[in-house]
Specification:
Elements lengths: L9 E8 L3 H16 L9 H19 L5 E8 L3 E8 L7 H7 L2 H12 L3 E6 L6 E8 L1
Antiparallel strand pairs: 1-2, 2-3, 3-5, 4-5
């Protein structure tokens, strides 16, 4: 079974150094990407998507930069969905379910916002278990 984001026709990849400015650059790039893909800035998912992305990039900068000097943001989109992932090369793999049930911290906010929009949040580990991506898929 194909992952939904793999079947979306639009793609964009952004690689940034794992430093504070990565959050701003990732947000600005996201705004450009959604606009280029025909998603209006006032669409109900854009504001929450920017917050979710900011939390994920911030987490990677804070917690993974010692082992992952770069962060990659992968965007995928189509007529029915907008998806993005934040990837780093730190081996720690947070539990999205635990974060959601604990109702604390940035990752809990990510999961709550995603589910509230009818979307999905999925952790995908690298083949060597030395990195991961958190994929967010939001319905349009």
């Amino acid at each position: 079974m194909a992952r939904q984001h793999e079947t979306l026709p639009y793609r964009h990849v952004l690689t940034l150094p794992a430093m504070g400015s990565a959050v701003r650059i990732a947000r600005e790039t996201t705004e450009q990407v959604v606009t280029e893909w025909g998603i209006h800035r006032t669409h109900r998912i854009v504001g929450p998507a920017l917050l979710i992305l900011s939390e994920l990039v911030t987490n990677s900068v804070r917690h993974a930069s010692a082992l992952s000097p770069n962060i990659t943001v992968i965007y995928a989109g189509g007529p029915d969905a907008f998806a993005f992932a934040v990837h780093d090369r730190h081996p720690y793999q947070p539990s999205l379910l635990h974060a959601h049930l604990a109702h604390r911290g940035g990752l809990a906010t990510v999961v709550e916002l995603t589910l509230g929009l009818g979307g999905t949040a999925v952790l995908r580990t690298d083949a060597d278990d030395q990195g991961k991506s958190i994929w967010i898929t939001l319905p349009l």
